[in-house]
Write a structure and sequence with these properties.
Elements: E1 2-7, E2 14-17, H1 22-34, E3 39-43, E4 49-53, E5 57-63
Antiparallel strand pairs: 1-2, 1-5, 3-4
């Protein structure tokens, strides 16, 4: 599952690939946002952790990655 995270004053979004289900990721995001001093804690598919203070979040996009096609073939 691909997760894109927008952060205040950052020119690029954070993107991770996670083995968690969309519902699990959504639950983690919601529980972090419910805490006034929340910390979003996600783990990618390689076991690396991403920690972002919730006061700096602008958006979290959860979805499947889109495969890019290369070439001039027809569909």
């Amino acid at each position: 599952m691909e997760v894109k995270i927008g952060v205040h004053n950052a020119t690029r979004e954070l993107v991770i690939e996670s083995n968690q289900s969309p519902k699990d990721i959504e639950g983690t995001v919601r529980s972090a946002l419910s805490d006034p001093n929340g910390l979003l804690d996600l783990e990618d598919e390689r076991g690396r952790r991403l920690l972002v203070r919730t006061e700096h979040l602008t958006y979290v996009e959860i979805g499947e990655p889109v495969e890019r096609r290369v070439g001039f073939g027809t569909v």
